[in-house]
Amino acid sequence: MIRPLSTAVCLAALLGHTAADTASDLTAALASDPSLSSMQQLVAQHPTLLNDLVKDNTAVTVFVPNNDALQAHTATAGRPLTDTPAALLASILAYHVVAAGLTSASFDSTFNSAKGITAPTLLTGEVYNNRTAGPELVAAYGTSAGGQVVYAERDDGGYTLQGGQAERINLTVVDKQWRRGYIQIVDRVLQLPKNCTATMNEQASLKTLSTSLADTGAYDSIDTARDVTCLAPSNEAFEAAGNPQKKLNSTELTWLIRSHVLKQPLYLDLIKDGMVFQSLRNTTIKVTKKGDDIYFNNAKVVQPNVLTNNGVVYVLDKVLENNSAVSPTTPDDPSGTDSAPSSTSSKSWGSGRPDVGKGLLLVAALGTVWAHFT
């Protein structure tokens, strides 16, 4: 897990300064870099947003979009960020502020042992953060761990930062200091995390899933669930398995869906080889790492760590087989590894091939049976 800058060091830098100084402090820090002049102007025009966001004695790191990033955002959104409604602008700013002082040393020490790091931001509220901090994030960030997360990753000698919509943007680590922590630079404006169905609707690869969800009329039940990891076979995985979602009765479909959902957000840097979990159906799911590849039981992850407002999605190349031979690490019910209904066989659903491209039919099926989860 990441090693944030010492709280004592950050507090020392904050002595004698109030929250009302925050916007002016950041504006002054940005003034020395011409590539950040657009963000400097935005902060100067909306000082109360940042002052309300960053409280006294809060050590933070701001991921500042450069001028090109704000210009690209204007082209995409159809208006400059400065014209964004205040509530939305506050959320966007909050998602660019991490609740810790992060430096190159923080990144390098973490990346020596892990490919990426999950860090909580100051973005809160159920619209964008319908989840809670797990024990790992609390251990690393303390009381600041509750905000929606971003994911930083080493990539081809540089760094990337991931927010909502599975978009990865380039992160330039410059360790620029200001009174409340550090500034790092990004080349795009982070997209805010959305609920599951909105995430699917905005990605071309998930159109089949989106259509299936519309057919079930189950958007609300999916989008209001909290703290979940969905292990989601791709379209090709279901096709290779004989399209079981088209053949199962309600009981069988319930078994299949619950076997693919973990009741906690399992972010990529928290995954370790040999971890064992119970699904919502009390089937056993074991993690195996082979180099950079991750497997849940028999299925390989082909698209990891898709952040939503209520957790995370992993796209798989196969439908999961029931691995009841292993005991869960922290079992709620050690004897509760169900068998599939007699008319179907989970073992017969194990073939498939990697393909990120078409979507998550498993979650689409969720619409008809989500009520059975509780």
TrEMBL record:
Keyword field contains Signal: yes
Signal peptide (from-to): 1-20
One cellular component term from this protein's GO annotations in UniProt: fungal-type vacuole membrane
GO biological process: macroautophagy
Keywords of the record: Signal
Region of interest: Disordered: 325-352
UniProt name for this protein: FAS1 domain-containing protein
